Amino acid sequence: MVQGTGLVLETTLLEAVAPTTVTDQVLAPAAELAEHLVDPEEVARWTRRFTGEVRGLPGRVYAGVRDLLDRQHVRLRLLPLVRAYERAKREAEALDFGDQAA
Which residues contact 56 (CB under 8 A, 6 or more apart)? Predict the structure, then answer.
């Protein structure tokens, strides 16, 4: 969740997934970011800070926490594709629903 926005970007690991799954994993966050007027770089900064803080905590890392950190890593890997999609929309002067809702 990006503080103050209510934005949640859920992803799954990218290993062995269909191209349509990756497409969905790019379009969904792009729409959420547009709807909440959040820049992908803000999400990247928050995600890096969050994962750094969690990894810096003492003690054992439970499986659920490890899964959460894996999803954050995937989020960071997807953000360049989200940025490229947003750039392509701008260059094509196109809008999607998230742009219109914002």
Answer: none
- Give me 94's structure tokens: 């196109």
Residue 12 domain flag:
no
Instruction: Report the percent of the chain where pLDDT is more than 90.
Output: 41
Is 80 inside a domain boundary?
yes
| 15-22 contacts, C-beta under 8 A, 24 or more apart | 22/78, 22/81
Instruction: Tell whether pTM > 0.90.
Output: no
The answer to whether residue 9 is domain-embedded is no
Q: What is the DSSP letter of 58?
A: S
Residue 68 CA to residue 54 CA, distance in Å, equals 10
Per-residue pLDDT at 25: 86
Give the count of domains, the chain: 1
* Cβ–Cβ < 8 Å for 82, 19: no
Domain that holds residue 24: 19-101
